[in-house]
Amino acid sequence: MSIRAQDCGGAEYARDKGIPVILFPKNKDATEGLSAEDLIAALRSYKVDFILLAGYLKLIPTELVRAYPKSIVNIHPSLLPAFGGKGYFGMKVHKAVIASGARYSGPTIHYVDEHYDTGRILAQRVVPVLANDTAEELAARVLHEEHKLYVEVVAALCEGRIIWREDGVPLIQSKENPKDYR
């Protein structure tokens, strides 16, 4: 059984709320979906400021990354740059973390660039790796923190609280005290 993109829960929710749904990428065998150029045009027509991904596993086309610099964000279930890159996703990440003997893991929110998991890191949250953890137990703790952290980062994006250091590192300005960064 395959689930089509137009049938996913998020698309259904959006349609029910009158939010436009754009299908991407266009598969060579599919009759639906957009090319990268058509996607950029559609996003611009809707005046999209940010593209928020949630563990998206495919490379984003270079055209889209260039059209939306510092505007595409994704999450990863490890403390990048460790356990990131092609092939590191889902339970594979947590199994690798445990097998390595790492004492800490956690979610990373990062900008998207033309490569897997190499964009500038916006935020991370540390989660301990317990002595007898299973990959499923660690994944659950990381996901719990991921949900909280992503909301905080998206709020900072929308509120214009991302400040870029001279060396190109993004920092999140504190909402309570604008002179503090993390």
Automatic annotation (TrEMBL):
Biochemical pathway: Purine metabolism; IMP biosynthesis via de novo pathway; N(2)-formyl-N(1)-(5-phospho-D-ribosyl)glycinamide from N(1)-(5-phospho-D-ribosyl)glycinamide (10-formyl THF route): step 1/1
Q: Which residues form a coiled coil?
A: none
Question: Which molecular-function annotations from GO does this UniProt entry contain?
Answer: phosphoribosylglycinamide formyltransferase activity
Give yes or no: UniProt keyword Transferase. yes
The UniProt entry, under CDD domains, shows: FMT_core_GART
Please cite one Gene Ontology biological process associated with this protein: 'de novo' IMP biosynthetic process
Per UniProt, the enzyme's principal EC class comes to: transferase
Q: InterPro entries in the record, alphabetically?
A: Formyl_transf_N, Formyl_transf_N_sf, GART, GART_AS
What protein family does this chain belong to?
Belongs to the GART family.
The protein in question is named phosphoribosylglycinamide formyltransferase 1
